[in-house]
Amino acid sequence: MMIIEPTGSACGAVVKGIDLNNQVSNSKMGKLVWALYEHRCLVIKNQKLTKESYYKFASEWGELIKHVLDYLRMPDYPEMMAIGNTEEKDKDDAVRNGAAVWHTDGSYIEDPTTVTMLYAVHVPKNGGETLVADMVAAYEDLDPYLKDELEKLTAKHYYGRAQFDPDEHRPVPIRTQQQATTNAVCEKPLVLTHPVAGHKALYAVAHSPFEINGKTKEETLSLLAKLKAHATQSKFIYSHRYEVGDILLFDNLSTMHRAKEQTDAAKTPDSDNARLLWRLSAKGIPNIIKNSSRSKNITT
What we know:
With about 300 residues, the chain is α+β, with helices and mostly antiparallel strands. About 20% of the residues lie in helices and about 25% in strands. It has a single domain (about 5-290), classed as Double-stranded beta-helix, CATH 3.60.130.10. It contains eight helices and 16 strands. The longest helix has 15 residues, at about 215-230.
């Protein structure tokens, strides 16, 4: 029997009693989807998946996305990425720690990334957490006058163009002109109404926004810094420490996230510090919603 229980932290729920190697029923899939929208992130425990079975499950959440940084893609599954410190590419600190910065996946893409999931294949004995910030709670905690102002504002976004804090790494680097031009500058609201669940959230106030329309550069930097500092307070953050077989899913329209720093590359996949997560992201809406009368278009 599938059980979904809150983490007891700022957000998130833990899911037990489901084997994703088997076909997930419509009833269970519906419960997972609405639990994600309610809790912002889910941790599905005790999975033993092949790339094929993981890919099949992820496909139920929308149209899978090939990341703009093509050198991070898996050759056999180009929508999937190996995140961590076990591969040759991870010897480069800029790649290994490119997610150790607050961000919202796909905030720099016109058609927004809606769901991301990370499947833990290898986990370090210490560290390796992913932090998830509840942007709905952060929005609800704002001063009403600031809420009113933000509702009217939009921001221009481009990959890795925002300002960064001293404890953050720069995003995984763009390496080719093709990668640089794949996604043009796009505009997104600072407050996003979830197209399915209907709640409001601060949206993507870190990593990619570089200009708030109608604001000067100084006003833009000041407001974005204020919103980022507000949203990343500990009272809004769930810190997930992985166990092998965990799948961490988060709703990108309602959260920001970042990795903890990984100081060293692992010598082997069995090293005490080895960390390997298989990453998949989707856009659009889950099939179970798309095929129901509650379906809406995903737009920002």
